């Protein structure tokens, strides 16, 4: 009987990187970019670009990477069902190696957070340190027993929204300037958008969640109603963003946000009519374009969500950054 070759050094490095799930790192960048733009205080210097890279490294590869790694460590049995090709269930990494992966990512994220907090100083430094520490704690509680926030959608979705959407936006705003009231509003909208999307992302693990007793919304109410709940949250986010833009005096951004809302509604109606095959014309964007960034899936409802995610993410990203940029410009003008 043939004996499989022992994984080499390069194979181990690839497996460790895969455990940190690089696809998810980019998810925090729109919030970081929005926070920076809303501050209106970043300068085009090497120092400020290094700070921007450092906060992305802290929340992306290290912070988000830790959340993915520690999740795999605690969810080995579920992953044997849902994602058997992941590094640990596939045997490319041992459980001990996976644990060390998460510990190193955790310590590096904490160390970088402390360094940046000291470097920035004052209450803004404390905001950055407390934000990354809180995000790391929530990431641990999300997966680790007995807390396991992911067991119930009422705790799992807010946990993701807090870590990916809210604190990353606020931290980036604090990186270059005082935290603006508008930034708190925008960070809150990013929180709710992340909540809506994580609800739909649970489609990919519905079978394993049901077997494992996890109460995802899909398991509790089915795919079609899950789409509806998520769409209501998304549409409210766009509506509030349009209202805020108007109330802040940003008429043109408010108009574009409303266009984004209308386009989303058109797509949502099609998905509610056909949760498994709706908006199939966007499948090419998933297969050939954005698939490497948002992932791919063989589960019909999750694949439908990925198609919708391409359109929704573009619409929200453009409008979110446009409004954040206007906020920053407002404070540049005041200064």
Automatic annotation (TrEMBL):
<dbReference type="Pfam" id="PF01040">
    <property type="entry name" value="UbiA"/>
</dbReference>
<dbReference type="InterPro" id="IPR000537">
    <property type="entry name" value="UbiA_prenyltransferase"/>
</dbReference>
<feature type="transmembrane region" description="Helical">
    <location>
        <begin position="23"/>
        <end position="42"/>
    </location>
</feature>
<protein>
    <submittedName>
        <fullName>Bacteriochlorophyll/chlorophyll synthetase</fullName>
    </submittedName>
</protein>
<feature type="transmembrane region" description="Helical">
    <location>
        <begin position="49"/>
        <end position="70"/>
    </location>
</feature>
<feature type="transmembrane region" description="Helical">
    <location>
        <begin position="314"/>
        <end position="332"/>
    </location>
</feature>
<feature type="transmembrane region" description="Helical">
    <location>
        <begin position="99"/>
        <end position="118"/>
    </location>
</feature>
<keyword id="KW-0472">Membrane</keyword>
<feature type="transmembrane region" description="Helical">
    <location>
        <begin position="251"/>
        <end position="272"/>
    </location>
</feature>
<feature type="transmembrane region" description="Helical">
    <location>
        <begin position="226"/>
        <end position="244"/>
    </location>
</feature>
<feature type="transmembrane region" description="Helical">
    <location>
        <begin position="183"/>
        <end position="200"/>
    </location>
</feature>
<dbReference type="InterPro" id="IPR050475">
    <property type="entry name" value="Prenyltransferase_related"/>
</dbReference>
<keyword id="KW-1003">Cell membrane</keyword>
<dbReference type="InterPro" id="IPR044878">
    <property type="entry name" value="UbiA_sf"/>
</dbReference>
<dbReference type="GO" id="GO:0016765">
    <property type="term" value="F:transferase activity, transferring alkyl or aryl (other than methyl) groups"/>
</dbReference>
<feature type="transmembrane region" description="Helical">
    <location>
        <begin position="125"/>
        <end position="143"/>
    </location>
</feature>
<keyword id="KW-1133">Transmembrane helix</keyword>
<keyword id="KW-0812">Transmembrane</keyword>
<feature type="transmembrane region" description="Helical">
    <location>
        <begin position="155"/>
        <end position="176"/>
    </location>
</feature>
<dbReference type="GO" id="GO:0016020">
    <property type="term" value="C:membrane"/>
</dbReference>
């Amino acid at each position: 009987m043939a004996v499989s070759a022992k994984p080499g050094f390069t194979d181990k490095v690839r497996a460790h990187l895969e455990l940190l799930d690089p696809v998810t790192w980019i998810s925090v960048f729109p919030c970081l970019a929005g926070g920076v733009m809303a501050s209106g205080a970043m300068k085009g210097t090497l120092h400020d670009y290094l700070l921007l890279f450092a906060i992305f490294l802290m929340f992306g590869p290290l912070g988000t990477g830790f959340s993915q790694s520690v999740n795999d460590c605690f969810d080995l049995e579920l992953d044997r069902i849902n994602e058997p090709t992941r590094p640990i269930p596939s045997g490319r990494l041992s459980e001990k190696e996976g644990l060390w992966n998460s510990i190193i990512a955790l310590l590096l994220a904490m160390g970088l957070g402390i360094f940046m907090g000291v470097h920035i100083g004052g209450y803004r430094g404390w905001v950055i340190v407390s934000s990354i520490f809180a995000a790391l704690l929530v990431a641990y509680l999300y997966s680790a027993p007995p807390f396991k926030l992911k067991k119930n959608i009422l705790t799992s979705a807010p946990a993701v929204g807090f870590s990916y959407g809210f604190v990353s936006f606020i931290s980036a705003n604090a990186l270059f300037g005082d935290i603006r009231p508008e930034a708190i509003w925008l960070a809150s909208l990013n929180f709710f958008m992340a909540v809506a999307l994580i609800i739909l992302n649970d489609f990919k693990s519905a079978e394993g969640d049901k077997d494992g007793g996890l109460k995802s919304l899909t398991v509790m109410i089915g795919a079609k109603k899950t789409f509806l709940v998520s769409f209501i949250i998304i549409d409210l986010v766009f509506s509030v963003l349009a209202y805020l833009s108007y109330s802040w005096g940003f008429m043109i951004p408010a108009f574009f946000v409303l266009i984004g809302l209308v386009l989303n509604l058109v797509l949502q109606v099609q998905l509610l009519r056909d949760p498994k095959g709706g908006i199939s014309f966007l499948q090419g964007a998933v297969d050939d374009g954005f698939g490497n960034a948002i992932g791919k899936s063989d589960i019909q409802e999750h694949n439908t969500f990925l198609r919708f995610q391409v359109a929704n993410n573009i619409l929200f990203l453009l409008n979110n950054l446009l409004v954040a940029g206007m906020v920053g410009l407002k404070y540049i003008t005041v200064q």
